[in-house]
Each structure stands twice: as structure tokens, then as C-alpha cells.
Design brief:
265 residues
Length: 265
């Protein structure tokens, strides 16, 4: 059996919590999700003026030192632990993937696997985007950035971007002032939302919510886009829901036994 075909897990985590140490909250969330990927880890934080990123190859505890986390100050953050689905194991493929042209900033962390990456890369390359990695996540980030440049608000830019994706994806995204959670219309990969006193948390599994003391609210629904910002939590229909197709391996292989998916441990 070709074991490369089974490398389809990753862990994503996001937090919107002004006034909190969001980098450390993300660190703890990624630590709880470490079983979903051991190749690399990364965190991107927004301080409302710019996106700050630190990522490297290795386990969460190996990648981040106290000084690294101290340097990531802000009000919202996303993080990622990686198993390679598309692209080799090298630092360029570590996530989150950040696109910042000085005017429009977006960072994306992705759990899943796209089926039309080659076509997207060819299209975006013709439009002037220069790819630095072989990860399919970079194509997603460029699609969203493209629509931000066209003047669409973030939730609409994300909706237009994901309309061009084929495959499995659970995404956490940040702009300078918003955290956005997205799940593909089949709901193939899990994504849960939690509430803290100071804000909201999004995690691939509920074990990521538990470790930071967040109360489980609900799962991101298939095809749904959820935006978290200073006004609260808002839901949008990104794409029409397709036949629910949660990956069975989440229950028997990928997920931790103390996580809840579709209401089941």
C-alpha cells in the first residue's frame, strides 16, 4: 500500500480574542492537534496593522520558543500543523500561507486536499501571481487576495475564491481585523467553533477548544463561511450544501478519542 495516499490530515486553529495572548492560545491549540501533523507548525498573528508569522519544520514544541511567541503580539491569530497532502516536506510548504502586497493582507491555513490545484496554479500564474511553494494552500490564498484586490469585502472575496475550489477543505483565514472559518460543501473535514469570554476559537477538533478553556458552540456547517470580528460572529452561505460526506477516517484514525465530531466521540 502506498502510504502517501493516507497523508490527508492536518490541524488548523484560529482565535479572535482582543486583549489576550492569542499566539500562546494558538500554540496550546496546535499542541492539542499535534496528532494531525508532525512535519511543520506555524502561527500568523494580526496586530491590526500587519500580519506577523513564524513557522518551521518540526513539532509544535520544537518550532516555538517563548521568545518566538512573545514576538507575535496581536488580537487574532491562526495556526497550522502539517502532514503533506500536496507538496514536499520543506519550509516553503509550511503554513499559514501569507499574501501581503502592502495594501491587502490575508493568511490561510488549510486542512484538506484540492483536486484542481494544477489548473488553479496555471490560471493564477497567468494573472501575475508567483508561486513560492508546491502547496495547494498558496493557490487558495492567492484566489482570496485576488478578489480582495477587486474590491470585494472579505466574506465575499472568500466566497468567490472557494467557488473555484474542488476537493476537501476546512480553512481558517485572517485579514488584518477578521478571523474567517470555512468548510467545503461536503463537510469532508471537521471544523468546530468555541466561545471564550474574550472572543471566539475555531479548531479542527474540539480537543483544541478544550485545552484553551473555550466552550463548544457548534460545528461549521458544510459550505458555510463564519466571520469573527469586533461586531461578533456572523454566518454566510458560501456554497450550497452537497451530500454530507464526513471522512470516516476522522472517527477511526485521525481524530483524538476525546474530540467530538457530528456530536459523537
Amino acid at each position: 500500500m502506498d502510504t502517501k495516499k493516507w497523508k490527508e490530515e492536518c490541524g488548523v486553529f484560529g482565535v479572535y480574542a482582543p486583549g489576550e495572548d492569542v499566539a500562546r492560545l494558538t500554540y496550546f491549540g496546535l499542541h492539542a492537534l499535534q496528532h494531525r501533523g508532525q512535519e511543520s507548525a506555524g502561527i500568523t498573528v494580526s496586530n491590526k496593522e500587519m500580519l506577523l508569522t513564524y513557522k518551521n519544520l518540526g513539532l509544535v514544541t520544537q518550532v516555538f520558543s517563548d521568545s518566538d511567541l512573545d514576538s507575535l503580539k496581536g488580537d487574532l491569530a491562526i495556526g497550522h500543523v502539517r502532514y503533506s497532502t500536496t507538496g514536499s516536506t520543506r519550509i516553503e510548504n509550511a503554513q499559514p500561507c501569507v499574501v501581503d502586497d502592502g495594501r491587502y493582507s490575508v493568511a490561510v491555513a488549510h486542512n484538506g486536499n484540492l483536486l484542481n490545484t494544477r489548473q488553479l496554479r496555471e490560471m493564477l500564474s497567468k494573472e501575475g501571481y508567483a508561486f513560492k511553494s508546491t502547496s495547494d494552500t498558496e493557490a487558495i490564498a492567492y484566489l482570496i487576495h485576488k478578489h480582495l484586490k477587486l474590491g470585494f469585502p472579505p466574506e465575499e472575496a472568500v466566497a468567490r475564491g472557494i467557488s473555484q475550489l474542488k476537493g476537501a477543505y476546512s480553512l481558517v483565514i485572517i485579514t488584518l481585523d477578521q478571523l474567517i472559518a470555512v468548510r467545503d460543501p461536503y463537510g469532508i473535514r471537521p471544523l468546530a467553533v468555541g466561545k471564550m469570554n474574550s472572543g471566539y476559537v475555531v479548531s479542527s477538533e474540539t480537543c483544541g477548544l478544550d485545552i484553551v478553556g473555550a466552550e463548544f458552540v457548534r460545528e461549521v456547517q458544510p459550505g458555510e463561511i463564519i466571520v469573527f470580528d469586533s461586531d461578533g460572529m456572523f454566518s454566510y452561505e458560501g456554497l450550497p450544501v452537497e451530500k454530507p460526506s464526513v471522512c470516516m477516517f476522522e472517527f477511526i484514525y485521525f481524530a483524538r478519542p476525546d474530540s467530538r465530531i457530528n456530536g459523537k466521540t
